[in-house]
Every structure is written in C-alpha cells, then in structure tokens.
Amino acid sequence: MILAYAAGAAILFGVGSYLLLQRDLVRIVAGVMLISQSAVLTLIGSSLTRGQAPIAPEPGRPVSDPLPQALSLTALVIGLATVALLLALAHRVAVVFRSERRDALAANEVEHEQELSPERQRDQDETAGPPPRPGGSR
C-alpha cells in the first residue's frame, strides 16, 4: 500500500516538473499545483499506521497520529491559496501583455526596456543636477 502512495507521488511530481518547464503560464501554474499535491500525498503515505482514533483510545491499543493529517490539511489550504494567487497573476499578465507564452513575454519586456531607456537617461540627467565645479565649492 505504501508503494502505491510512493508511486503516485512520484508520478505527480514528475508530471508537475514537466509542466513547470513548459512555456505556457497556465501549465506552469498546473505544475506548481501538482508538485504541491505530490508533497501532500508523500506526507500522507509516510504516516500510514494502523491504530484507533486518538479521541477515545482503549488502553493498550495503538493510536494513530493525527499530526500528519493536520499538516496535510494545512498544506492543501496553503496550496489552494497559492494556486489562486498564481492564476490571478497569470491572468493579469495575459491581459496586460496579451500573451501567455514566456517567450513572447520576454520579448515584450526587452522591447519595453528599450523604449524606456531614453526616458530613464533623461531623468537621470535631470536629477543629477549641474556638474561639479573644478577646484571644489569655495
């Protein structure tokens, strides 16, 4: 049974890593989500023990540990919030730059930097003030 959990976590991690290396932003977010879920599955698989619920255990019988289940629930909630934030950011990037591909975003960023370079140079010249006089300020 633990081997099935390990195999499932390995498959989820492998597919998530593959998606993380893609060029589309939505696939990158899906890769992050799958890697997060593989961590949760690993945590659940590593804590498999047989025992009673820790609410009212009988004396002398094994009790299961509730901590991995609580950590898994916390990881699920944090992972869901992270995926929601990443999807919102990917949507905003797609709206602003009109592309979801990393290559197009990088080209757009280089183009934008080239447009801003003369403006930045002019702003730096204006804020620098007049050049210092030779011989000090006396």
**SS content category:** mainly alpha
CATH topology: Helix Hairpins
H/E element sequence:
HHHH
**Rg (CA only):** 27 Å
Helical residues, percent: over 70%
Give the tally of structural domains.
Answer: 1
The total of beta strands comes to 0
Task: Give the second-level CATH assignment, the architecture.
Answer: Orthogonal Bundle
Main beta sheet strand tally, sense and closure:
none
Beta-strand share of residues:
under 5%
Subcellular location: Cell membrane
Transmembrane segments: 6-21, 28-49, 69-90
Main location: membrane
Keywords: Cell membrane, Membrane, Transmembrane, Transmembrane helix
Describe this entry's structure for a reader.
The chain is an all-alpha fold and 138 residues long. 72% of the residues lie in helices and 0% in strands. The chain has one domain (2-49, 67-123): Helix Hairpins. α1 runs antiparallel to α2 (25-46).
Summary tags:
Helix Hairpins; 4 helices; single chain; 72% helix; 138 residues; mainly alpha
Brief account:
This protein has 138 residues and is mainly alpha-helical. Helix content is 72%, strand content 0%. The chain has helices spanning 2-20, 25-46, 67-97, 102-128.
How is the topology of this model organized?
Blueprint: H1 2-20, H2 25-46, H3 67-97, H4 102-128
Helix pairs in contact: 1-2, 2-3
